[in-house]
Amino acid sequence: MVNTEQLEGATAAIKELIAAKACGPILIRLAWHDAGTYDDSIGAAAWPKCGGANGSIRFDPEILHGANAGLKNALILLEPIKAQFPEVGYADLFQLASATAVEVMGGPTIPMKYGRKDATGPDMCHPEGNLPAGAAPWPTGGDAAGHLRAVFHRMGLSDQDIVALSGAHCVGRAHASRSGLCHKAETKYTAAGACPMGTAATGGASWTPEWTKFDNSYFQVVKDPKDEELLALETDTVLFKDPEFLKYAEKYAEDQDAFFADYAVSHAKLSELGVAWEA
Ligand code: HEM
């Protein structure tokens, strides 16, 4: 049973944490990497083998997967909140932190549900390789668009979900010491004193200038790349090349309300992948 009082307490604590550390982006990435292991061909009935939003990312070996480099920092940030509100499960806490981060940074309210069952040990971790690669050679073969489809369709998500969820790159940065997938170790947007919230550690390359603000600027800058200080991975630029992705990407570049409405639906779907609910 969900303890509403503890959930509300944890929400308030997460808001304070984000205000103090500007850590909203990494909290979003943590929840996405917990959920994104889901394999729809196994199906949620086979919990926890199917992967998904079950909190297994907190265990070795999953947190040590190459794709999760740097996410240990997010676990460390959330641990005191877990200790303070022990009845909020890990899987719920990770998803709560992400949805709260989206909202606090100016994004839409996500229609969230709570009561996820937690994975209880490392034996419930998922094999490496279920999350998308950010650069060629694509482990699934083919091109960037094919890779995104192979990975997200395996989760049971659609082309529209791929484009909407990619819009989360409106916030955050890539770091040389984590993914290594940044063209510069530091940019004018991530250097000392440049953090829009004033409080984050420096360095890395952001997709957008105001990288602690959740908005549709990601689609605008990826569509019309003029600023060499900004990052765009091949999996970002392909959204404006592949004809099916392009339909949604163009819409979101033009209309922030349309992006927010679709993002909220896709984010909620992502947060429920593979979930077994507590009775
Ligand atoms: C479409 C395929 C995706 C690829 C290839 C991808 C790749 C990456 C990479 C390489 C980084 C940099 C990590 C680092 O060096 O610290 C990153 C960061 C990030 N990603 Fe994605 N990502 C994808 C989808 C998503 C989705 C679906 C979400 C959420 C809904 C998301 C949210 C984020 C956020 C918020 C960050 C910033 C983290 C930070 O600032 O610490 N990404 N992503």
UniProtKB/TrEMBL annotation:
SUPFAM superfamilies: Heme-dependent peroxidases. Residues 88-279 form the Plant heme peroxidase family profile domain. Keywords: Heme, Iron, Metal-binding, Oxidoreductase, Peroxidase. PROSITE patterns: PEROXIDASE_2, PEROXIDASE_4. Its EC number is 1.11.1.11. One of its GO terms (molecular function) is heme binding. It comes from the Eukaryota. InterPro entries: Ccp1-like, Haem_peroxidase, Haem_peroxidase_sf, Peroxidase_I, Peroxidases_AS. GO terms for biological process: cellular response to oxidative stress; hydrogen peroxide catabolic process; response to reactive oxygen species. Belongs to the peroxidase family. This is Ascorbate peroxidase.
